[in-house]
Amino acid sequence: MASSDIRQGLQELENSSAPQQDRPAAYRKLLDQILSSATTSPDFSANLEAFINSILGDNLGIVAARPLLGAAVEAIKAIPSLDSKIEAGTAALRSLEPRIVSFEEQDAQLREMLADAYQSQEEYIEAAKVLQGIQLESSQRRVADDHKVDIWMRICRLYLEEDDTTSAESYLNRAKNLRHQITKPELTLAFQLSEARILDARRRFLDASQAYHSFSFSPILDEEERTRALSSAIVCAILAPAGPQRSRALAKLYKDERVPQVPEFGMLEKMFLDRLLSPDEVSRFSENLQPHQLARTADGSTVLAKAVIEHNLLSVSRLYDNIGIDELAVLLGLEADQAEGYAARMLEQGRIAGSIDQIDRIIVFDGLEASAEGGGSRKMVAGKGLRKWDMRVQGVAEELERVASMIQLQYPEFSNPNENMVQ
């Protein structure tokens, strides 16, 4: 409850017969009195709430009330204690609610101030909810497109702090409609980063890797931020399902001259070169992953474990023409049935080329690149048997021609034996 002297002062102003044009000055004097006791009076928040309720009454017009309300909002912003600021701001919002149409600007200022206070206390959901109440589509005031996107992206980032990707994506989609009207580079960057984080959280790792990689080239970011984005791009590419698309993503990252500087370079290099990964290497890599990147999938394995198994299986297909299912299980560290299941799924999805002989328990690899462009459709390069033999013969012939050319360059006298015979 407000202090007795403030209640008495407000009552006198409300019952005063003074002319309408003199009342704002009297209210301003009373507000100065309230502000002077901000650090000493325990009733400061209650006094401000009573003051706001009074100026929003019928004894002042809207035009006169707006500057006084603006001054009260600035006073709330100046409160040093976060708890007191939240208490006073929440009370002011309650008072404004019945007449919000006439005071949308002041309501927006209060909500942004409250969101700052909640965010400082790491109450991200409360901060997001407060910002959602801002009227951005209104006939009473014009809101610039940049400011709309700024509010939506802030709400999006707040929800991402709590891993609520569904709510975050809904506000990202609102901002997406105005993306081409954005004039501030920092808003564009915020959009790109939020989009990458949502793709990452939804385990669309290939798309997330591409988004992080594009973000890492921004010239207005400092070196540390660019390096962090590059690391995130590598992590997402590593976690993506093994296959031709991921191979292209790994190749693009491996050719980036900055990657030797990041800790994930060793893992990236091994995956790019189709080398088998050991459990120790995987364990060290997992220490820096986010919780959602270590989540378990439907079959009980983690996202990382599944990505590593599929990568090792792809590496095996490059090293062997055929392999027994039991031997493959040993290499992958799985039971035989699990190893066969992984192989069958990757063959079906077109991520490796070959076939499974379940009678002899052997997997035969074509040794040629498979092609899968999503949707479960399967396109395999024709091959096996005769085609593979033809490729090897062609390789030998090309190598023989290369050796002959080198001999001719090194020993030109042997290049035309007929001339030597005539001489």
Descriptive overview:
- A hairpin with a 7-residue loop joins strand 4 and strand 5.
- The chain has helices at residues 4-15, 23-36, 44-55, 62-77, 82-96, 104-120, 124-132, 145-161, 165-176, 185-201, 205-215, 223-239, 244-254, 265-272, 279-286, 303-319, 325-332, 336-348, 385-410, 417-422; strands at residues 322-324, 354-357, 362-365, 370-371, 379-380.
- With 423 residues, the chain is mostly helical.
- It has 20 helices and 5 strands.
- 63% of the residues lie in helices and 4% in strands.
- The chain has a 3-stranded antiparallel beta sheet.
Placed side by side, the strands forming the largest sheet appear as 1-3-2
Tell me the span between the first and last alpha carbons: 122 Å
Q: What is the overall silhouette?
A: elongated
Helix/strand-derived class?
mainly alpha
Strand content: under 5%
Q: Rg from C-alpha positions?
A: 34 Å
SS elements, strand count? 5
Uncertain residue segments: 371-384
Helix content: 55-70%
Can you count the helices?
Answer: 20
In terms of quaternary structure, the protein is: single chain
- Please describe the biggest sheet, giving its number of strands, its sense, and whether it closes into a barrel: 3 strands, antiparallel
Order of helices and strands: HHHHHHHHHHHHHHHHEHHEEEEHH
- Rounded mean pLDDT score: 82
